[in-house]
Amino acid sequence: MSSTISDITVKTINGEDKQLNEYTGKVLLIVNVASYCGYTPQYEGLEKLNQKYRQAGLRILGFPCNDFGAQEPGSNEEIVQFCTSKFSASFSMFDKVHAKGSQQHPLYARLTNAVEPTVEVAWNFEKFLVNKQGEVIARFKSSVQPDSPELIAIIEEELAK
């Protein structure tokens, strides 16, 4: 199985198809997000990363997901309203996906098989880092905060390449 995500198509939160190969040359942080989770305050940290590193080539891709504790029950419109009003989130948001199970989105099938541990996403706000060539290179548990030194270090390392 390919460890790149470039051939995958996703839907934006507005319902438009987007080819992930459009992000070639950018470093991606892909996160399954939820509005009613103990980790939801990470939206703030994700937006800070977006503000700090966007000019350098980082793109944060948020994928709402209701697979864990039904913590993302809202419509796409409600999700956008929540993220922008509560956290001023300006990074890219996408259509709600399944990160695990029989209806797992092809993106998450690829992400979870690309790097260790090759297991299903365990909870909301799990993070995957993708290099400029579209290769999945790192995975971080939900508990790893967006401003954690281990995450910042690898983002900066990839941006510098």
TrEMBL record:
<dbReference type="InterPro" id="IPR000889">
    <property type="entry name" value="Glutathione_peroxidase"/>
</dbReference>
<comment type="similarity">
    <text>Belongs to the glutathione peroxidase family.</text>
</comment>
<dbReference type="Pfam" id="PF00255">
    <property type="entry name" value="GSHPx"/>
</dbReference>
<protein>
    <recommendedName>
        <fullName>Glutathione peroxidase</fullName>
    </recommendedName>
</protein>
<dbReference type="InterPro" id="IPR029759">
    <property type="entry name" value="GPX_AS"/>
</dbReference>
<keyword id="KW-0560">Oxidoreductase</keyword>
<dbReference type="GO" id="GO:0034599">
    <property type="term" value="P:cellular response to oxidative stress"/>
</dbReference>
<dbReference type="InterPro" id="IPR036249">
    <property type="entry name" value="Thioredoxin-like_sf"/>
</dbReference>
<keyword id="KW-0575">Peroxidase</keyword>
<feature type="active site">
    <location>
        <position position="37"/>
    </location>
</feature>
<dbReference type="GO" id="GO:0004601">
    <property type="term" value="F:peroxidase activity"/>
</dbReference>
